[in-house]
Amino acid sequence: MNFKINEVYHGFKLIEEKDIKEINGIGRIFQHEKSGARLFALNNDDDNKVFTIAFRTPVEDSTGVPHILEHSVLCGSDKYPTKEPFVDLIKGSLNTFLNAFTFPDKTMYPVASKNDKDFINLMSVYLDAVFYPNLRDTKEIMMQEGWHYEIEDKNEPLTYKGVVYNEMRGAFSSPEGVLFRKIQETLFKDTTYFYESGGDPEFIPDLTQEKFVEFHKKYYHPCNSYITLYGNGDLDKQLAMIDDEYLQNFDKINVDSHIDIQQPYSARVDVVKPYAISEEDDDTDKAMISLNYVTGSQKDVTDHLGMDILESILLETPASPLKNALIKAGIGKDVYGSYDGGILQPTFSIIVKDTDENRKEEFCKIVNETLAKLVKDGIDKKLVEGCVNSTEFKLRECDGSYYPKGLIYAMNCLESWLYDESPFNYIEYGKLLKDIKEGAENGYFEKLIEKYLLDNTHSSVLTLVPDKTLAAKKDKELKEKLAKIKANMSEEQLEEIIENTVALKKRQSTPDTPEQLAKIPLLSRDDINKKAEEIKVVEREVCGEKVLYLDEFTNQIVYFIASFDSSAVKKELIPYLSVLSYMLGKLSTAKHNYNELSNEININTGDISFSADSYASIDDTDTFCTKFTMRGRALTEKTKEMLSLMAEIISSTKFDEFDKIHEFIRQLKSRMEMSMIDSAHRMAIHRVMSYFSDGAAYAEQVSGIDFYKFISILDKDFENKKEEIKTNLETVAKTVFNKNNLIISVAGEEAEFKAVEENLSLITDVLESREIEVQKYEFEKGKKNEGIETPADVQYVCKQYNITNLGYKYTGKLLVAKVILGLDYLWNKVRVQGGAYGCPVVITRSGNIGFASYRDPNLKDTLNIYDEMWKYLKDFKVDEREMTKYIIGAVRDLDMPMSPSVKLTAGLVNHIKGISQDMIQQERDEVLSTTEEDIRSFSEMFKKLMEENYMCVIGNETKIRENKELFNNIIKLFQ
Length: 975
Hints:
This protein is of the alpha+beta class and 975 residues long. The chain is globular, with a radius of gyration of 28 Å.
């Protein structure tokens, strides 16, 4: 359909239309005349359609009202009155993405689907949720998702419960989470960014139902909304649905969601704040120091992208001069940068971790001197070229892994659109890059340094100091506060809270009626593709080596994987595989020093990376194969350069650069610590698996807690171990870089394959072909049942075992049980009633079945919920409609869209594990034929599974010690 400027389509007036080569499509800006809603449509041939609606939501306090609202609007609405339409959609929709996000100044609701009918259904549920939510007159929704006093007996202590309350207690347990929150505080003392939009646990209980409803009424109006549509959908039909069912019911009003500009500071502010560490932890050199700047506004379109690139130039590559200056001075063990471009006034931070707080002045002096020298002498041209190229590659590729492209574009457009600038600004990045490349020849980045860093007084220096007593002090203050609140309550007030608690639990445990459930839109089984999608990887031979080829459109990008057999590495050297993977590409080679090598990689490729991987057998938990993997991506015309650099790295890396090796070991340790608290549920899953599986025990050696302990020892005793480290890295490299049993994988069209074919000898020529002396890896296993203590305020509670060890076999029907347990039983028991943020279910082809709660205020109660699961399965009974919903949910998980790089990896994994297309189809057939009788038949198996009692808890040390009888070992996570 042809659209014309200034014409009105279903109430939407077309304001502007452009061809956008960056998305290979057309962009259109619409304004809904009656309601005032804005709409930005990006139409191309992508069948993974995306819809988002966002609202500008500035705050005046840290009660977390936009975050709690983000959760709560999805708890039922006028048209879709079930308690959790969001969960109903996850269970029974073919969505490829379904979520909601709270940002410092906006709240966003995205959905995606490849199925046209499903996409319209998802749009309808989300639009009804944001405009007509049940939270307006159902106070239990805010109580459940936000916070409430909980007490069922007046003799019990009063407590706080709530999903967001516990989520943010977990978020505030991370030192980096505290740091980034406080950075905003120091830079924006007079605006919305001073406050925590996600909610500070200290202030969340100040939110009342009245303020909650008023916030929704004020900001969730179409004239304060920003709607995006993306993909190959029928735009006319989509506009008609949005207008007919929703927007035509609203009249334009004046919503004041204006975000004030923070007036520049006349001088840098200096702030010191504490963060919690364990009482037994060594607090020496555990401070974090951050130098922060406000860098213009979103009106500075080119500089916005320029500052993002400058952050890479200064701080993110092995050749980055500011990072290297700080590391050389020994200021800290890790240095990194952060550019936050998603707010009205972007911020730039230079962060040093694991340092002495008394070195703050020295830190600031080195930063200023280094920046001044760069302005005076100029930045290395190769470094600039590399970082600009790397940014351009990422923008062009737009590979969000499991994030749909349309969502990435929607987020990008809001970086300007939300602040009354054009939504095209950051979608049309080609012109910005052209201007930046031309400017780079004339000192553009040096001028950015001068303007936004050296001459900028709107800045702060923030020091986070470790405090061993802070966690206990906060716990004590919270208990005293709640005790005082209870003591000051009248009998009537106490009775009312008890009644509210009982009423909430009754609502949570009362199932939706069949009439309510029937209102949730549901596809039929006929809408499901019965045939499993095939990842068509074909086997070819190049230079005498096996090549797996995925014929896929990649927009003239080559995706390349080399999988080396690492099974000859001796058992005691296994952890060095991961150390090696982190060092390669960062150390000097025979041809280039590390600065030059970093620049060459960035100039010629999207990236080159390495990893130590293991692949579990689908038949036996103790059988697995190991690979050392080299990955790269490059434009087709740069394939030769990429393969040449790879060959250089694997054949001539120098392992005698001890200062750099120690720097990277410290950096690796620091980065693991950053991710450990937020990903503790995944760590717990892998940890428990290692109790009964040799394959998982191997994985612990290269990526888990065992590996973290290993690198902590290397860091602590580096001077005594450096020669040993050098020898071991050389030994491991020589062992794995072997032509024997090498598998090459390539994704692209024939032009990309030909580019690899013509140049693969660059790699094979530097490899010897040696016989592989396969090592037998056996590890000490057993029911370790560890309590792993961290400074966190919440727990990550995991229980897991393998059904094949109990005599059962994997079937695709278990994937339907996964949906049922994850989105009914565990969602209701662990999240809704227990207050945890979530509880993922893990089920693998090899028979591992596990559960891990996330940001959970409970410990023993959650383990009991796992143990009672079999009873739920035993009594499972639903009608045909509900069963269809669960089956659709399982199929959705099987059919998630994959980017070319993800699809290539999936094809490689299937090849290594021996998973055929027939097996994939059989799994799908089993999913589609699942009955409620099948689900009930799993009851006994799950009972035996939990009775094996393999478990691990990562979390609050006090909570773990209060339940010490549950554990065979209690250990500290951080060294």
